C-alpha cells in the first residue's frame, strides 16, 4: 500500500508492498508449462443475454428506462465531447455479466478493475499521461502549477454535473482535514508544504505547489489520484461538519465516534477503501456503480452507470457490459476448480498459480477459455526485508552489518528455490529493477546470489559472529544467540511460506537461528507500524519504471518502509519526527528530492541511477529469485481483453486496458 493511498486503516498512509494487488508470479519456459492452445476452444460456458444491434447507441436496458420516462434521453446524459475509447479488438455489443472472483474483499482490486477514472490516466502502453475526466491541462510556473480543464457535461451517476467544486471538496475538506487524515499524501505536497487547490471556474481547477513538482501528473494518473474524483460534494457534504451542523450528532447516533468516523464509514476515503464499495448510495463517474454490496454475503454486484461519459468510435455509450459480479472465494482450489469449469469471465492471477497451469490447460476446450499473459511489476518473487532501524539497538547493530547480510545472501540456495518452489521458472535475483526497466542494474541484480556456504561463513565470521553455542548457533557479542524471526503474511503470495522455510534451513546451516512466523496481513502491518518486527517477506513491488514513483526498496521515502520505519518518518516529517538516517541514506533522500523537482525525464533518470548505485553499494535487502511471468484465465466469449495484461497498481491493472470496452460475444 502506497503512503499516498488512504487504505487499510483509512487514516494511516502506510505502504505495505504486495497487499494492494493479487499477484502470483508465474511463467512459461519449461516443457511442463508449455500450454499454448491450438485453438480457442468452444465459445464459453453460461448463457449471456447480449444485444448484437450495431446501431444501438445505448444499452437496451437504458433505452427501456428512457422509454418509460425513468431516465433522460441519452443526449441529455452525455457531455458534448465524450471521451472516445478505441476497442482493443473491435466494437462490441451490449449486455451480459462479467463474472470474476477474489480471495478476500479488497478495495484496490475493485478500484483497479472497476473504478480507474481519475482526472488523467495512463496510456495503454504506459508511455505517457493522457486526458480523462480532464480533457486538457496546462503546466506552468516551472512545474509549480497545474491547471486542469474538466470535460463539461460529465455527470455523476445520479445525474448531477461533476465540476471543479467536487475536486476542491475532495482535497480541501477531506484530504486536508486533519480529523479525517492527519497526514497529507506526499504526492500532494512540495517542500514540506501542501499544495493549494483552487476553483478557477466551474470546469477548471488549479493545483499550485511551493516547489516544482516534476512527478505530479504521473502520480495523478496512478492509483493515488482516485480519491480526487471519488467524492461528490453534493453527497458527502451531508456527513461533513463544515456543511452539516448535525453531522457529529447523527454520526454518534449510528454508533460512530464522531462525524469524521461517520464520513469515512460512508466511503469518504475513496475507492481504495472497502467502505466506498459497500455504499450503493455514492454517486460515481466510473462505468459501474455498486448495486449489491457485500454485506454479510460473499458477492458484490455493480451495475452500469447510465450517465457514463465515454463512447466507442461509433458513438455508442460505454460500458458494453451490464453487470459485474465479484464473488469472494477464500479457498484457492475452489476458485481454480470453478475457473476450470468456465464459470468466470476473467480469473484474477491470484487464482492462477504456476502449479495449476497444466491442469487448467487441459480443461480449456471443455471450459471454453483461453490464457492471457499476466506479467507483473515486481522485482522479486520473495524478498527478505531486514529492519535496519530496529528498536532494539543490539539487533539493529546486527542487521546493519553489511557482512552479515552478505553472508546470509551467499547461504541461500536460490536454484533449489527455483527448482522446487517456482517449478524451474526464473533466475537468481537480488533487488534491481527488472531488465525491461531503464533502471535495470546488473550488479544490483546479481551480487552475492551464488550459493557458496564457505563465503557465507567467511562473511559471517568477518561480521564478528565467530563464537557458537552448544547447538552450533552463532553468538552476538553480548553472548545471546544470533536469532531473529521472519514474518510471513498468509493469504498473499502462496510461495512465500515454502520459500521462507527453505531459507530458514539455509541460514540455520551457517549458524544463524532464523525462525518463521506466519500471520495475517493486518497483524504484520501493525507490527511494522510499531517498528516491532525483525524481518518481513515481500514481493518487491514495484520493479519496472514505476520505481521512480515508488522507490521504497531503495530509499525510505515514506512512513511505511518496512526496512526503515523511523528513517522514513524522519524524511516525511522533514526531521520533526522519527530518527535521522545514516549519511549515505540522507544523500539518497537528497537525490530523490531533486528528482521530484526535476521536469526533464532524462535528468530524472540520471539522478535515480545515482540513487540506485548507493542502494547497490549498501545492499539493504536480500532477494531470492526474479519473478516469473503470470497468466490469467479468460472466457473465449469475453472479448477486447489484451493478450498481455501487465499487473500493477501504479499502472492500475486491468483498468489501464479500459474494461468499459470489454464485451461478451453472444452464444
Structural commentary:
There is one protein chain. 54% of the residues are buried. α14 packs antiparallel against α17 (453-462). A hairpin with a 2-residue loop joins β11 and β12 (204-208). The chain is an alpha+beta fold. Helix content is 27%, strand content 16%. This is Peptide/nickel transport system substrate-binding protein. It comes from Actinopolymorpha pittospori. One of its GO terms (biological process) is peptide transport. It holds the Pfam family SBP_bac_5.
Subunit arrangement of the protein: single chain
Supply the CATH architecture of the largest domain. Answer: Roll
- Rough outline: globular
The level of helicity is 25-40%
Mean pLDDT value: 90
| Radius of gyration computed on alpha carbons | 25 Å
Query: How far apart lie the N and C ends?
Result: 41 Å
β-sheet strand percentage: 15-25%
**CATH topology title of the largest domain:** Dipeptide-binding Protein, domain 3
Query: What is the CATH class designation of the largest domain?
Result: Alpha Beta
Strand order of the largest sheet: 4-16-14-13
Largest sheet: 4 strands, mixed
- Find the CATH superfamily of the largest domain: Dipeptide-binding Protein, Domain 3
Low-confidence stretches are 1-47
What structural category arises from helix and sheet content? alpha+beta
Number of domains: 3
Q: Helix count, per DSSP?
A: 22
SS elements, strand count: 25
Domain Solute-binding protein family: 128-546
InterPro entries: SBP_5, SBP_5_dom
Pfam family, one: SBP_bac_5
Protein name: Peptide/nickel transport system substrate-binding protein
Amino acid at each position: 500500500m502506497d503512503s499516498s493511498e488512504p487504505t487499510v486503516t483509512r487514516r494511516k498512509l502506510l505502504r505495505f508492498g504486495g497487499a494492494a494487488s493479487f499477484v502470483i508470479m508465474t511463467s512459461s519456459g519449461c516443457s511442463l508449462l508449455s500450454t499454448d492452445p491450438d485453438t480457442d476452444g468452444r465459445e464459453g460456458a453460461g448463457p449471456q443475454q447480449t444485444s448484437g444491434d450495431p446501431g444501438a447507441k445505448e444499452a437496451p436496458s437504458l433505452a427501456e428506462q428512457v422509454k418509460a420516462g425513468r431516465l433522460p434521453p441519452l443526449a441529455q446524459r452525455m457531455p458534448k465531447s465524450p471521451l472516445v475509447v478505441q476497442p482493443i479488438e473491435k466494437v462490441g455489443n451490449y449486455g451480459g455479466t462479467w463474472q470474476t472472483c477474489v480471495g478476500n474483499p479488497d478495495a484496490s482490486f475493485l478500484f483497479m478493475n472497476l473504478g480507474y477514472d481519475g482526472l488523467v490516466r495512463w496510456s495503454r502502453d504506459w508511455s505517457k499521461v493522457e486526458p480523462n475526466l480532464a480533457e486538457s491541462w496546462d503546466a506552468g510556473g516551472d512545474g509549480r502549477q497545474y491547471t486542469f480543464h474538466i470535460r463539461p457535461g460529465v455527470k455523476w451517476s445520479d445525474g448531477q454535473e461533476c465540476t471543479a467544486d467536487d475536486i476542491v471538496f475532495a482535497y480541501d475538506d477531506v484530504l486536508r482535514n486533519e480529523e479525517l487524515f492527519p497526514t497529507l499524501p506526499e504526492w500532494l505536497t512540495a517542500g514540506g508544504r501542501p499544495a493549494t487547490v483552487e476553483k478557477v471556474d466551474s470546469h477548471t481547477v488549479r493545483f499550485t505547489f511551493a516547489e516544482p513538482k516534476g512527478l505530479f501528473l504521473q502520480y495523478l494518473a496512478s492509483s493515488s489520484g482516485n480519491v480526487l474524483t471519488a467524492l461528490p460534494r453534493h453527497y458527502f457534504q451531508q456527513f461533513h461538519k463544515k456543511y452539516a451542523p448535525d453531522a457529529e450528532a447523527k454520526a454518534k447516533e449510528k454508533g460512530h465516534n464522531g462525524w469524521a468516523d461517520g464520513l469515512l464509514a460512508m466511503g469518504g476515503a475513496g475507492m481504495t477503501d472497502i467502505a466506498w464499495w459497500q455504499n450503493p448510495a455514492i454517486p460515481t463517474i466510473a462505468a459501474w456503480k455498486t448495486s449489491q454490496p457485500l454485506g454479510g454475503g460473499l458477492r458484490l454486484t455493480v451495475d452500469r452507470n447510465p450517465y457514463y461519459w465515454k463512447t466507442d468510435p461509433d458513438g455508442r455509450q460505454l460500458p458494453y457490459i451490464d453487470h459485474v459480479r465479484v464473488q469472494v472465494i477464500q479457498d484457492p482450489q475452489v476458485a481454480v476448480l470453478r475457473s476450470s469449469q468456465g464459470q468466470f469471465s476473467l480469473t484474477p492471477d491470484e487464482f492462477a498459480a504456476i502449479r495449476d497451469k497444466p491442469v487448467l490447460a487441459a480443461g480449456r476446450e471443455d471450459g471454453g477459455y483461453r490464457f492471457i499473459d499476466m506479467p507483473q511489476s515486481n522485482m522479486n518473487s520473495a524478498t527478505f526485508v531486514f529492519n535496519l532501524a530496529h528498536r532494539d539497538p543490539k539487533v539493529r547493530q546486527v542487521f546493519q552489518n553489511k557482512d552479515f547480510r552478505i553472508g546470509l545472501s551467499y547461504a541461500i540456495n536460490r536454484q533449489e528455490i527455483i527448482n522446487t518452489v517456482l517449478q524451474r521458472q526464473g533466475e537468481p535475483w537480488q533487488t534491481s529493477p527488472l531488465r525491461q526497466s531503464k533502471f535495470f542494474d546488473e550488479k544490483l541484480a546479481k551480487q552475492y546470489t551464488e550459493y557458496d556456504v564457505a563465503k557465507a561463513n567467511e562473511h559471517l565470521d568477518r561480521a564478528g559472529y565467530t563464537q557458537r553455542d552448544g547447538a552450533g548457533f552463532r553468538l552476538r557479542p553480548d553472548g545471546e544467540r544470533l536469532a531473529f524471526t521472519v514474518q510471513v503474511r498468509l493469504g498473499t503470495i502462496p510461495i512465500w511460506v515454502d520459500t521462507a522455510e527453505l531459507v530458514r534451513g539455509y541460514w540455520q546451516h551457517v549458524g544463524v537461528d532464523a525462525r518463521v512466523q506466519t500471520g495475517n496481513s493486518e497483524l504484520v502491518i501493525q507490527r511494522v507500524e510499531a517498528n516491532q518486527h525483525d524481518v518481513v517477506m515481500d514481493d518487491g513491488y514495484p520493479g519496472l519504471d514505476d520505481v521512480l514513483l515508488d522507490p521504497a526498496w531503495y530509499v525510505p521515502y515514506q512512513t511505511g518502509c518496512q526496512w526503515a520505519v523511523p528513517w522514513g518518518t524522519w524524511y516525511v516529517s522533514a526531521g520533526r519526527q522519527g530518527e535521522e538516517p545514516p549519511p549515505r541514506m540522507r544523500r539518497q533522500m537528497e537525490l530523490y528530492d531533486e528528482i521530484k523537482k526535476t521536469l526533464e525525464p532524462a535528468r530524472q533518470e540520471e539522478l535515480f541511477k545515482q540513487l540506485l548505485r548507493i542502494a547497490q553499494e549498501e545492499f539493504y535487502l536480500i532477494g531470492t529469485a526474479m519473478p516469473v511471468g503470470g497468466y490469467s484465465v479468460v472466457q473465449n466469449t469475453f472479448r477486447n481483453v489484451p493478450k498481455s495484461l501487465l499487473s500493477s497498481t501504479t499502472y492500475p491493472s486491468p483498468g489501464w486496458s479500459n474494461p468499459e470496452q470489454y464485451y461478451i460475444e453472444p452464444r
